[in-house]
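Hello forum,

I keep getting stuck at the same step: I have a sequence, I want structure tokens, and every attempt I make locally crashes halfway through. Rather than fight my setup again tonight, could one of you with a working pipeline run this one for me? It's a single chain of 246 residues.
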Amino acid sequence: MTAIKNAIFIKEQNPETSVHILYRDIQAYGTENEALFQLSKQLGVRYIKYDQERPPEVQENTVKVYHHLLGRELEIPQDLVVLSTPLIAGEDNEALSKLLRVTLDENKFFLEGHVKLKPLDFATDGVYLCGNAHYPATLREAISQALGAASRASIPLAKGVMTIEPIVSVLADEDACRGCGLCVALCPYGALEIAQTDKGRKVQVIPVACKGCGICAATCYVHALSINSYTDQQVEEQIRAFLTGP
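Reply #2:
Ran it on my machine without issues. Output:
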């Protein structure tokens, strides 16, 4: 959107200026951004889409670009070429995600707990996100998200306590645990850790971080872990009762 806004500013200052925007993809989401996009076209800004395999070539007085709709190469006279740089994720996001035990998306931005139900919360309790930590946000979006994140953070601060889920993972058979660390690597909430005990390397559950998803219990090949109130025996009895009927 930066290029579109700059193009509108140039055309408003000097309507005779010829402005071309070469793009791979335009994401003018929302009514406000769509209105700016339409306004730029009304002011005479020309848009030319190019393929990533055939990027534009900047020469001394022209810019050569292949127009895939026309099927031929265009030479656009230019006095000034402006490169619009994208906003990318911070270099320390990956290290910070491991420290806070939160997840990242494919672009290395922080990922919310749920796009609809928890847009400002992480899956890890007590950590919230907003603005460019989430995605390249506008100023208005960043402010509204910051207000929302602050409101969410104020709830446990006002209560003074946090209520955790009663159904969590438990080390049901400590002797069976081999301390392989597979469950630790797969836990999306960082609720497991390997500790040295009198019986050797054993997994330990952090109840306050556990969400009871059951990934650890399902992947433990020695059946050392189980979910509280959802042991294998309990689940098998429920299935047996359902199949046999009253």
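The longest helix spans residues 139-159. If your local run keeps crashing, start a new thread with the error log.
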